[in-house]
Amino acid sequence: MADTWAQDIANQFKKRDNPKPISNCIGLILQTGDDWKISIQDGAYIIDKRNGYICRHILQRSSDFTIDQESQNGSLTTGPCSGGFSHGGSSYSTSNSARGHVTLHPIDDWKPGNRVMVAPTADNQRFFIVDIIV
Hints:
Layout: H1 2-15, E1 25-31, E2 37-40, E3 45-47, E4 52-54, H2 56-59, E5 62-72, E6 75-78, E7 81-84, E8 93-103, E9 115-120, E10 127-133
Parallel strand pairs: 4-10
Antiparallel strand pairs: 1-2, 1-9, 2-3, 5-6, 5-8, 6-7, 9-10
């Protein structure tokens, strides 16, 4: 008799509606600015700054950079690229470096009505806004 009771309880747990985990999905931008909001699964969930993170490259396309150039005996190397040059038939050595900041074109796609790629955490409690879908 105890076995039947245990089986009945196990069957009840099996029957119940467990929420299905959310996987990567497409969200809709509802609002931008400090109080940004994104809707997923046809409005079933709203993501905002309390439960979501926006990847930096969506809001700001800028970066610091460093370029180190060394020129020895008529060849120039910058990162993985190399090339040759000559000046008056003589060989010489120089060394240059540069640091700076580059900002690319402003982002026009972060606006209400556009779609974004959303990735949830394993526990479906927080969400990452990964990229804008164009």
